[in-house]
Specification:
Blueprint: E1 10-14, E2 23-29, E3 34-38, E4 49-52, E5 56-62, H1 65-70, H2 76-93
Antiparallel strand pairs: 1-2, 1-5, 2-3, 3-4
């Protein structure tokens, strides 16, 4: 089983805390323990949430990674719509 690294654009599922069960985008890596996450609705890209990596399940999928790495503008609505697809996929599997 390959280890998934925390990187810009990686999709993560929160497994602990108040936001448990929600999908987020990693929009910043602070160090080996903490990342900045945003969902485009409650945690905007302008004010991301600091989260411990141990409280996240990192997925293999990346979204908007090229825009993040190149410093291009990403709108919160664009991020919210992209993450909503992951939430909808979960509900279909249940």
């Amino acid at each position: 089983m390959e280890k998934v690294e925390a990187e810009l654009g990686r999709v993560a599922l929160s497994v602990a805390g108040r936001d448990k069960g929600k999908y987020f985008l990693i929009c910043g890596v602070l160090d080996e323990r903490y990342v900045l996450i945003a969902d485009g609705r409650f945690h905007k890209l302008g004010a991301p949430k600091k989260k411990n990596i141990r409280h996240l399940k990192l997925l293999k999928k990346t979204i908007l990674a090229n825009k993040l790495k190149n410093g291009l503008k990403i709108f919160d609505s664009e991020l919210y719509k992209a993450l909503k697809a992951f939430d909808n996929n979960d509900k279909k599997e249940e």
